[in-house]
Amino acid sequence: MPGKAAKVIITERQQEILQRWVRSRSCPRGLAQRAEIILLAFDRWQNGPIADHLGCERHAVGIWRRRWADAFDTLARIECLEGLSALETAIEDVLSDNPRSGCPGTFAPDQIARIIAVACEPPEDSGRPVTHWSPTELAEEVVARRIVPSISVRHVGRLLKVPSSSPTGVGTG
């Protein structure tokens, strides 16, 4: 038999923030879903129906309920002492994913900066018979210059890809 679900309590301000995130089109999907979990739990929904309604796992609903319940006193204190923007930040922290483990980066930031600097140079200056850098040409050049011992063409392409959400980025021309 499953354990007892954590009781969810929220204040009016917290509820307003959570409802705004649920309705927002610009709020990250995971954050909006977790906000909705808390709102439904506050409305006394059980974990199973919340999970079915939102298309997630019942176990996940329980995790977010517990995390909210554990953080409620801190959130209430922040709400009383620090104001609305601090409260919103604190709620986002409570409902954010924990950092995930993974491989460390393959290249140091200075190596990446040097690769990008080479990409900004005209290929003719390096004796390359092309007018624009291709990922293949650039990979060969940074290895030849001993910036990195080796690098795949695909990795060069990822480093130079212009992020769609960033107003600035590095491109190959």
Number of helices: 8
First and last CA, distance: 61 Å
Mean pLDDT over the full residue set = 89
Count of strand segments:
0
Helix content: 55-70%
- What oligomeric state best describes the polypeptide chains here? single chain
Q: What's the overall geometry?
A: elongated
Provide key terms for this protein.
173 residues, mainly alpha, elongated, disordered C terminus
Structure commentary:
The chain is mainly alpha-helical and 173 residues long. It is 57% helix and 0% strand. It has eight helices and no strands. It has helices spanning 12-23, 29-42, 47-54, 58-81, 84-94, 109-120, 135-144, 153-160. Helix 2 packs antiparallel against helix 3 (47-54), helix 2 (29-42) crosses helix 4 (58-81) and helix 3 crosses helix 4 (58-81). It is elongated.
Brief summary:
This protein has helices spanning 12-23, 29-42, 47-54, 58-81, 84-94, 109-120, 135-144, 153-160. The chain is mainly α and 173 residues long.
